[in-house]
Structures are given as structure tokens and as C-alpha cells.
Design a protein that fits this description.
Strand content: 25-35%
Strand order of the largest sheet: 3-4-5-8-9-10-11-12
Distance between the termini: 24 Å
Mean pLDDT: 84
CATH class of one domain: Mainly Beta
Length: 515
């Protein structure tokens, strides 16, 4: 990413007002997600190299790991005695691996899938010398599935938050010792197993796991483009997604096979898949496949393009010795969905924005809406992004945090029970004037917001109302208001419960959905 020297330009306009009342407010799950979309939920993928930190952990390290790692992929039995001080681990399990040299596999050779000649088949990974470390289990066998679930229950009981289940492959991933895909013989039919049968067995298996482990966080490491021509419109794929809490996208946006544009292998196609997972009520983990500074920022910027506040972003190489401070960033509430802007993908937040240039795209230089801070701490007015690059940027002066005022909405008790009107002060800041008025009505509050931008005459102003609940500001309503003649805007928010609120507004340039 190339960064230019700063120059003074128009600044995003924002101001806040707080409205207080008697009772706390109730917020929808969607509002909760929108309010937290600018935060990072970091998922660590630990390996043996991380054992030196956990094997003789100090109180300081334990506090660090709990504070930095929202979740972590860990391994049983090594981590069994550590769940008491880190209860957020997902224990790793493979869905249909039978390890070649284990006593367990030797005791159940009939669970191994075979080809027409009777040769044992493998999960085609890590193969050498004509064999692979993991045999492919017959997921159509009820005995195998029951044994897997019994082991999983025992594992979770040791204090794990959930399971990260690898190889939830809705497309065939069975092969010979040379990693060549082979259609196994289906023991249920005696004929070569069909793709449809495989997907049906897989969907049934993960549904059984879900039913057996209620309340346990289940993470599927699955193939986002599985399902043949139908992809996630395939009924078995839908059943699989519904059986998970999180879909882990291995390598995430760092996958070298992703392209630009709108094709079936494009970054846009992957982001659209994530949108559909969200629409199904499930969450996503964007696994980082590139730990270089550019690769991890591209992954983080892409995460912010789709984040709901309940998703995660991961990388395997983070430790107390090389923690990237950008994972501590909080961009504030999202002001909307991602949109196309100057050839880039952009998403705006209250305190910053995320930009992504798609793979195979030309380098693009854009002027920012205000002087902004990069993840490296530089103040910039323009950025240049090459193909497959991203930027996470924060405003030098976070919008909406310069000044705040209180307006007490009240209702005078008298015979007519008519509500009286209370006016809030007029605020000025970042070239915008914001007026806040409230009216107490029977059953709640009605809020009137109006203002004017001193420099912008077109575009949109994002307005959101946040209520105080359990010590946290939670977005109750959000809307976009067009600028009218003279740069004026106005909005009315009705049916608010009595409570303590603040109103925030931020200028946003005209936007549209990605094309």
C-alpha cells in the first residue's frame, strides 16, 4: 500500500446528543450486530510452536490470551488441563479421518472406505510414498457416526467452548495414496458412491452432531463453493450450514484462486456467499492465509466489509511477541453495507472505514474523506491500493466524539396528558450543525433530528440513535437521510422506549451496492 502525504480536505461531519429518561431500552439482535461490526473478534489457530507460551503459562500470559484471543483452535488432550484458565477454546476434530497408525483405526478396519478393488482410501492430504496419514471413514455408517459423537461429547465436557470440525466437505474429498480423487464403493449399496449420496451422508452426520451437542459452539471448516452447480442452493449444503454456528473459510480472501469481477471464483462471489450465510442466521470466520503485513491487512479490511459484530477473523502466527496492534482497532458502529467507491469496495463506520481493491484490478489512488490514520499510525489524505490489497483507516478525530450534550426528555403530568416538547441545543463541529428535539408521547419518545452541512450539498447523512443498556451504547435505530437544498437534512424517529439515548450523525458520500 502506497501512502501520500496529508493535505487538508473536507472532514466527515458528525455530532452527538444524549437523551435521558426513566427506563432502559430493548435492542434487536440486528442492532446489536451493527453496533459491534467495527470491532475485531480475533481467532487464533494455535499449533505446537505456541505450546511454549501455554505449557508453563504465567498469570500475565493467561490474562493476555483471554484478552486478545476471542476464540482459539486448540488440541485435546494437550489443552485439557488449560481450559480452566482459557475456556474459549475450540477443540480440533476431523469429521471423517481415521488416523493410519492408531489403535482405534486398527480396531475398526470396516469403517475405512475402499475402492472397487478393495484398496483402502484416504483423505487426500499430506500424502507421500503411496499413502496418506488419514484414512477416509465411511460417514454413511451409523456405528462410526455414533462413536465420533460419543468422543466429541467427552471432549467438550473437559471445558471447551466448542469444536472446530475440519473436512466438512460437501464435495468429494476421497482419494488414493497419490492424492488422486477416487469414488469409493458405498457399503450401503455395493455400488460406487454418488456425489448426491455423499452430500446426504455428510448433511445427516453434521445434523446428528448438532442435535447431540446443543449449546456447544460448532465450527465447520467447509468448502464455500461446494454443492456443484447449485453451490449453497444445494439442499444438503443448506442443511450443513444450518447445523453450524460458524463457517470457517480456510485461507479466506488470501486464497490465490480468487479473481476480480463477478465471476464464480471472484472475491465478490465469496463475499456474497458470506452474505447468504449471514442471512441464514450463521456466522463466518475469515481465516487469514497470509501473515505478511499486506496480506493480514487485506484480510482484516475484507473482514470489516462483511462483519456483523458476531463474526471472527483469524491468523495462526500471532503471539505476545508479534501481536499486531491493528487487531485491537474499534471502528465503531457500521453506517451501512459495503459499496463500490472509486473502483474499490468500501464500508463506512462511525470512526473509520475499510477499503479493498479486488484481485487482478489495477492500482487505484483515492482521496479520503478526511485525514485518517493507517494501521501503522501515519496520518494520510490519500491511499494507493494495488490488486488484492486493503486498508483499514481511522479518522484522526473520531466522528461523534468531539462533543456531547444531554437533553432531558420529560412529560408533564396534567389532565390532558398531552406531551410537552423539549428542545436540545444546537451543535457545531466538522462543518455540520445538528439540532436535536424530543417529544414525550404516551408510550414512549419521539425524536426529531435536523441539521445542515456547511460544505456538502449532495450525498447522504447517516443517523443512528443509540440507547444505554447495561453500561453499553447499543444502536436502536439507524437510517440514511439525503441532503436537500442548502445541505440540509432531517429525520424523525418514533416509538422509542423511555430511556437514555444519544444521537449521532455522519456525512456519507452517495453509495450503491457493488456492481
Amino acid at each position: 500500500m502506497l501512502i501520500s502525504r496529508p493535505r487538508m480536505i473536507g472532514v466527515v461531519a458528525s455530532m452527538a446528543a444524549v437523551i435521558a429518561g426513566g427506563a432502559s431500552m430493548a435492542a434487536s439482535a440486528r442492532a446489536l450486530s451493527t453496533a459491534a461490526a467495527g470491532t475485531v473478534k480475533f481467532v487464533a489457530y494455535t499449533g505446537s510452536s505456541f505450546d511454549r507460551f501455554t505449557s508453563n503459562s504465567t498469570p500475565a500470559f493467561r490474562a493476555w490470551m483471554n484478552g486478545k484471543f476471542w476464540r482459539a483452535e486448540v488440541f485435546s488432550p494437550y489443552f485439557d488441563d488449560k481450559t480452566s484458565w482459557y475456556p474459549h477454546g475450540w477443540a480440533y476434530r476431523d469429521l471423517y479421518a481415521l488416523y493410519r497408525d492408531s489403535a482405534y483405526t486398527a480396531a475398526h478396519p470396516n469403517w475405512i472406505l475402499r475402492d472397487a478393488a478393495g484398496n483402502r482410501l484416504y483423505i487426500p492430504w499430506g500424502c507421500s510414498g503411496g499413502s496418506c496419514p488419514q484414512y477416509a471413514a465411511d460417514i454413511g455408517a451409523q456405528q462410526f457416526r455414533r462413536a465420533w459423537i460419543a468422543e466429541a461429547k467427552a471432549e467438550v465436557a473437559k471445558g471447551y467452548a466448542g469444536l472446530l470440525i475440519d473436512d466438512v466437505n460437501l464435495d468429494f474429498r476421497v482419494g488414493d495414496g497419490a492424492e488422486q480423487f477416487v469414488d469409493p464403493i458405498d457399503p450401503n449399496t455395493g455400488q460406487p458412491m454418488t456425489e448426491r449420496a455423499w452430500r446426504g451422508y455428510m448433511a445427516t452426520f453434521v445434523e446428528e452432531i448438532r442435535q447431540a451437542l446443543p449449546g456447544v459452539e460448532l465450527v465447520h471448516n467447509s468448502i464455500w463453493y461446494a454443492g456443484g452447480p447449485e453451490r449453497d442452493n444445494n439442499q444438503s449444503v443448506r442443511r450443513e450450514i444450518a447445523s453450524a454456528d460458524y463457517i470457517n473459510l480456510e485461507r479466506g480472501v488470501n486464497d490465490a484462486g480468487l479473481t476480480g469481477g463477478r465471476g464464480e471464483w471472484s472475491l465478490q462471489a465469496l463475499l456474497s456467499f458470506i452474505d447468504r450465510v449471514h442471512a441464514a442466521g450463521r456466522r463466518v470466520l475469515l481465516d487469514g492465509g497470509d501473515s505478511t503485513p499486506g496480506g493480514r491487512e487485506y484480510s482484516l479490511a475484507s473482514y470489516f466489509l462483511v462483519a456483523t459484530g458476531e463474526d471472527g477473523v483469524g491468523l495462526g502466527s500471532m503471539s505476545p511477541e508479534d501481536w499486531w496492534p491493528a487487531y485491537d482497532i474499534d471502528l465503531g458502529p457500521a453506517l451501512g453495507a459495503r459499496a463500490s467507491w472509486e473502483g474499490l469496495l468500501r464500508r463506512d463506520f462511525a470512526d473509520g472505514l475499510a477499503l479493498v481493491n479486488e484481485p487482478q484490478a489495477p492500482a487505484r489512488t483515492v482521496t479520503l474523506p478526511a485525514p485518517m490514520l493507517t494501521t501503522g499510525g501515519a496520518v494520510v489524505a490519500r491511499v494507493t491500493l494495488g490488486a488484492g490489497q486493503g486498508a483499514v483507516l481511522r479518522y484522526v478525530s473520531p466522528p461523534g466524539r468531539q462533543r456531547a450534550a444531554r437533553v432531558i426528555a420529560h412529560k408533564r403530568r396534567h389532565r390532558s396528558q398531552r406531551a410537552r416538547r423539549a428542545s436540545g441545543p444546537r451543535f457545531r463541529g466538522h462543518g455540520v450543525t445538528l439540532h436535536v428535539h424530543t417529544r414525550a408521547r404516551r408510550g414512549g419518545l419521539e425524536l426529531f433530528v435536523s441539521g445542515r452541512s456547511s460544505w456538502a450539498r449532495s450525498g447522504l447523512v447517516a443517523v443512528w440513535v443509540q440507547g444505554r443498556r447495561h453500561g453499553t451504547w447499543i444502536t436502536a435505530r439507524s437510517l440514511r437521510c439525503p441532503l436537500h437544498a442548502g445541505g440540509r437534512f432531517d429525520a424523525t424517529v418514533s416509538h422509542l422506549r423511555r430511556g437514555r439515548y444519544r444521537v449521532r450523525a455522519a456525512y456519507s458520500s452517495p453509495s450503491r451496492e457493488p456492481s
